[in-house]
């Protein structure tokens, strides 16, 4: 588990969770924060999700190749 790509993928997944929790919290609370940042948070979550999927697929591919 000393592969840096593994830790990078974990960090990307954690970023997705943080963006999702902040976005859901904003939706639940409503108010000015939600009006200002709801779309930004969900776009950020989608970006983090894309990065996480690419990193996870890269990790799985490289591990299957022996790299």
From TrEMBL:
Keywords: Membrane, Transmembrane, Transmembrane helix. The chain crosses the membrane at residues 6-25, 46-62. The keyword Membrane applies. Pfam families: HIG_1_N. InterPro entries: Hypoxia_induced_domain (IPR007667). Residues 1-67 form the HIG1 domain. This is Twin transmembrane helix small protein. The lineage of its organism: Bacteria, Pseudomonadati, Pseudomonadota, Alphaproteobacteria, Rhodobacterales.
